[in-house]
């Protein structure tokens, strides 16, 4: 029986090339055995996740999605993502250093309406991206399978998820200003758990932890990037801890079922206890995570400036992602 496997992709700017390398390797080695049933991403992960989800489609669509995301992360430059505001523009609009209209144009060109329509089908993976509504302070999940979702609205959700506050302009959705999903959800495990993932394959874009600086902070943009790095590291840690707790809870429930299989009255009491409302976040609903794959992350910090998109660097990081996937995943995650 095929496993319900979820791919979740963290934020990290240009370092998303590492994730693309992992995905390309998994596609080339294991796509014939199946694909992810759930694909989610935040920040740069939100730009990759929808294309990774389309890879579940029959060829030529599935392979075209792979080739598109590989091409983008082999050739993209910063100016194709954002446009730096001139001084007189900053005086008129002081909420961001850059406009993201180049990214909007890029997504309109490369994330095809036919791909979005395929993701709405029942047989397509559950795909989602996460952004944060800054008026309410809450994270929002956008999915092509939402009956009210449209292609332009989903592109705006992808833009909002990848819009780093101050560095990039916010995206107005339903009248509210929305920004980077990484503010609340660097690695979006929660929805994968709620959708019933049995195996979660998370791709991180940092080795973990915050490395000490070797040079002093002397500019506002450096301080902003450092602030984001510290906040994201803490959020990433919390996201993983939540998923680990659910995974352990699933293992405990399975062990109890095995231990008391021959004692139905006791097993019934155990199930009733685990089904109580106060335990729902760990044992309720679709919570059945059995495995969280560990190790899909760079061995060393890729860059101190993840907002600089340089093709030479990204091609190298993509190869690192492929090599890491080959070391970490040695059999199909889908069977």
Compile the SSE list and pairings.
Elements: E1 5-9, H1 16-30, E2 38-42, H2 44-54, H3 61-75, E3 83-84, H4 87-92, E4 96-99, H5 101-110, H6 113-119, E5 126-133, E6 138-142, H7 151-161, E7 166-168, E8 171-173, E9 176-180, H8 189-194, E10 199-203, H9 220-259, H10 264-274, H11 280-283, E11 291-292, H12 311-328
Parallel strand pairs: 1-2, 1-10, 2-5, 4-7, 10-11
Antiparallel strand pairs: 3-4, 5-6, 5-9, 8-9
Helix pairs in contact: 1-2, 1-3, 1-12, 2-3, 2-6, 5-7
Could you tell me the strand content as a percent range? 5-15%
Structural classification: alpha/beta
Element string (H = helix, E = strand): EHEHHEHEHHEEHEEEHEHHHEH
Instruction: Using the alpha-carbon principal axes, give the shape.
Output: globular
Walk me through this protein's architecture.
With 335 residues, the protein is an alpha/beta fold. It is built from 12 helices and 11 strands. The chain has helices at 16-30, 44-54, 61-75, 87-92, 101-110, 113-119, 151-161, 189-194, 220-259, 264-274, 280-283, 311-328; strands at 5-9, 38-42, 83-84, 96-99, 126-133, 138-142, 166-168, 171-173, 176-180, 199-203, 291-292. The strands form 2 sheets. Strands 1, 2, 5, 6, 8, 9, 10 and 11 form an 8-stranded mixed sheet that branches. Strands 3-4-7 form a 3-stranded mixed sheet, with no helix packed on it. α1 packs parallel to α2 (44-54), α1 (16-30) packs antiparallel against α3 and α1 (16-30) packs across α12. It is globular, with a radius of gyration of 20 Å.
């Amino acid at each position: 029986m095929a496993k319900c496997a979820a791919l979740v992709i963290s934020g990290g700017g240009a370092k998303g090339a590492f994730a693309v390398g992992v995905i390309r390797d998994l596609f080339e080695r294991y796509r014939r055995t199946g694909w992810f049933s759930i694909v989610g991403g935040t920040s740069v992960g939100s730009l990759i996740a929808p294309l990774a989800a389309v890879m579940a489609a029959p060829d030529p669509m599935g392979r075209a999605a792979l080739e598109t995301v590989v091409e983008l992360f082999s050739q993209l430059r910063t100016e194709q993502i954002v446009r730096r505001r001139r001084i007189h523009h900053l005086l008129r609009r002081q909420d961001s250093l850059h406009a993201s209209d180049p990214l909007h144009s890029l997504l309109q060109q490369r994330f095809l309406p036919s791909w979005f329509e395929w993701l709405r089908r029942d047989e397509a993976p559950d795909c989602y991206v996460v952004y944060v509504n800054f008026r309410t302070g809450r994270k929002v999940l956008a999915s092509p399978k939402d009956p009210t979702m449209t292609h332009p609205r989903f592109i705006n959700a992808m833009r909002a998820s990848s819009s780093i506050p101050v560095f990039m302009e916010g995206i107005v959705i339903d009248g509210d200003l929305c920004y980077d999903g990484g503010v609340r959800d660097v690695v979006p495990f929660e929805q994968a758990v709620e959708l019933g993932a049995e195996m979660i394959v998370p791709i991180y874009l940092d080795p973990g932890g915050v490395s000490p600086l070797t040079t002093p902070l002397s500019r506002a943009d450096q301080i902003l990037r450092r602030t984001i790095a510290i906040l994201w590291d803490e959020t990433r840690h919390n996201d993983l801890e939540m998923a680990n707790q659910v995974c352990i809870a699933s293992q405990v429930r399975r062990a109890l079922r095995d231990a008391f299989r021959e004692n139905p009255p006791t097993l019934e009491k155990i199930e009733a206890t685990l089904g109580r409302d106060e335990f729902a976040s760990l044992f309720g609903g679709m919570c059945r995570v059995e495995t969280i794959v560990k190790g899909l992350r760079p061995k060393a910090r890729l860059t101190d400036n993840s907002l600089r998109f340089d093709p030479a660097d990204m091609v190298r990081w993509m190869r690192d992602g492929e090599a890491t996937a080959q070391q970490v995943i040695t059999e199909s995650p889908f069977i």
